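Justification of computing resources. Each target in the renewal requires a structure prediction run like the one illustrated here; the chain below, 254 residues long, is used simply to show the kind of job we budget for.
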Amino acid sequence: MIADSFRLDGSVALVTGASAGLGAAIAVALAEAGADVAAHGNTRSAAATCARIEQLGRRTMALTGDLRDRSVSGRLVDDTREKMGRLDILVNNAGLIHRTPAVDFADDDWDRIIEVNLTSAFRLARAAARVFLASGRGGKIVNIASLLSFQGGITVPAYAAAKGGLAQLTKALANEWAARGINVNAVAPGYMQTDNTTALRADPVRSRQILERIPAGRWGEPNDVAGAVVFLASRAAGYVHGHLLVVDGGWLGR
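Resulting structure tokens:
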């Protein structure tokens, strides 16, 4: 039955940035679909997310680590595989945003955003792919991109550059690994009700401008993205490679 191909029973997923927002919703949705889930928090523990996963009867573990540290990516993959017994799905969700006009944008802020949003995603994907290839089972990698993978945004030059790079990285890795049983895809969320958009939603003028542009007439919610990730992590998306699935309420079609 086609419905069975959306199930994730018996698989193990690692979700970065899963302490709140999109990452927490994704981790719980994967568990609802049958996966056991390792939930990572950059500096904030994902223990609350793990508690929700345990209530679903799934195995889980909370991981922490600052993804600016280049040793953390490999450790997260190794810890998940060793303690959960396997790894089948990686969701690169962790990300930072910093809003400053480009002429005032500090080098340290640029480096921090690029490191967490783009470089760590590559390192995690590389480490996960090594596990997938060694297991002979293949695997699924889902990167959380952005509308700014397509557009430039305003006062977020590092974030836009990182998300644009993540879109191209998704395609590049898919080209290399599709024939080896690894699906690499991305979800590009639109304007979501998360911590990253707090400043925008608090600005009555900018919030109104954004809502007027969204055909769906509302800000997106974390579960809007979570369903798309479950699809791309499942057997139902077995022939989907290098795709950026936009979840934006129709923004880009406007």
